[in-house]
Amino acid sequence: MDRVVLKDLNLEELKDFVTSIGLEPYRAKQIAQWIYKKRVSDFDSMTNISKATRKLLSEKAAIDVLKTVKVEESADGTRKYLFELPDGNRIESVFIPEKGWNTLCVSTQVGCPAGCKFCLTAKDGFTRSLTPAEIVDQYIQVQRDVGEERRISNVVFMGMGEPLLNFDNVKKAVEIMTHRDMLDLSKRKITISTVGIVPGIERMARELNRVKLAVSLHATTDEVREKIVPLNRKYPIGEIFRALRRYPADNVRRIMIEYVMLKDVNDSLEDARRLVGLVRGIPVKVNLIPFNPYPGSSFEPTPREKIEAFQKVLWDHNIAAFIRESRGQDISAACGMLRTKEKLSA
Ligand code: SAH
Question: What is the CATH number assigned to the segment(s) 67-331?
């Protein structure tokens, strides 16, 4: 019989599991404490549990699922992790130290099915979705590695994959990350980024509405967006904004609009003005992402002055717009650079 992977279970399910093997329900909280607060990797460390019970647990259940293959550190302190999954597939995660807090960027799939033309992850194709444990374990492995004094306070679902095409497992991972007896992160410090999967945005509104939503827009007309984000054919700009207008957001919980600046593709002042029109009446924050070029890419970054001019149009219309500083570029840890295969050229 395969062992049950405990990091796949929310607290309710963990209770069901411990009772199913004949233990008292309160053991679930104890085990959760060891796994999520003390971050142990084996049952023998669980010293308030009897030896016989520890033996039973180790026969029926497993704790860690990821193996660290490689860690690279950038000149700016960003750390990129290459992990191996139980089936041999590989994913990457990125630890981003910031002034006063630390962010972890997690992957949700091996590769990505979205196929955005400017994104390097897309070039690996799509293999499969990650399990809840494979998502949650990215947090635990990285937290163990950086040390408890550098507590990861924020999690962004912006690594490899499209989180809203793996909704159930992402939701479970968020439950584990935010439960006070588990990782105990604040929902407001978790951001899920989507290429614009409309049914997923609607489910987020209903089931995960305290979590922050980020939408990778990247264009202001369907004509341009279709060329760079193929899923726009299925979920065009109008449909996405219809869902965003209904999304429960306010000035504290603004929706983040991500916009990668591609030279002469989506970066005109006319685009900026169209963007103003699209977001009118929705509490948003716009993140302008400088394109990270890579060998063989058919896009070029917009020059800085032009990004600033684009940004000014937004500010002139009272729309909060920030230019996202690129982190970990020297170790290919920046937006859209994560890969399933180590050190592959484009
Ligand atoms: N699939 C989700 C989560 C990935 S988030 C989504 O699309 O939102 C990663 C972000 O980096 C996305 O906004 C993506 O469009 C952007 N990105 C991809 N390749 C990039 C590149 N080469 N330079 C800058 N940003 C890039």
Answer: 3.20.20.70
The string of pLDDT tens digits covering residues 227-268 is 999 999 999 999 999 999 999 988 888 999 999 999 999 999
Find out whether the beta carbon of 192 lies less than 6 Å from any atom of ligand 1: no
* Pocket of ligand 1 contains residue 335 by CB under 6 Å: yes
Question: In ligand 1, which atom is closest to the CA atom of 326?
Answer: 24
Q: How far is the CA of 11 from the centre of ligand 1 (A)?
A: 32
- SS3 assignment, position 290: strand
- Sorted by where each begins, the domain ranges of the chain are 4-62, 67-331
Q: How deeply is 257 buried, as exposed, middle or buried, from its count of CB atoms within 10 A (0-12, 13-18, 19+)?
A: buried
For ligand 1, whether the C-beta of 266 sits within 6 Å is no
Judge residue 52's burial from the number of C-beta atoms within 10 Å of its C-beta, 0-12 exposed, 13-18 middle, 19 or more buried: exposed
Read off the pLDDT band of 54 (50, 70, 90): very high
Tens of pLDDT, residues 59-80: 999 999 999 999 999 999 999 9
Does the beta carbon of 119 lie inside 6 Å of ligand 1?
A: yes
| CA gap 28, 15 in Å, rounded | 5
Check: CB of residue 79 under 8 Å from CB of residue 72. Answer: yes
Q: How far apart are CA 5 and CA 137, in angstroms?
A: 11
Tell the residue number behind the tokens 């994560």, with chain if given.
338
Provide the β-strand partners of residue 269. none
Cα–Cα distance for residue pair 214/204, rounded to 1 Å? 11
337 CA to centre of ligand 1 in angstroms? 8
Is the pLDDT at 112 greater than 50, yes or no?
A: yes
Which atom of ligand 1 approaches the CA of 215 most closely? 8
Q: Tell me, using a 6 A CB cutoff, whether residue 216 lines ligand 1.
A: yes
pTM for this structure?
A: 0.96
Out of 3.30.300.20, 1.10.150.530, 3.40.1110.10, 3.30.479.10, which CATH number does the structure's domain 4-62 have? 1.10.150.530
Catalytic, 175? Answer: no
Which residue is closest in CA terms to ligand 1's atom 5?
158
Q: Which of 92, 134, 162, 258 is catalytic?
A: 92
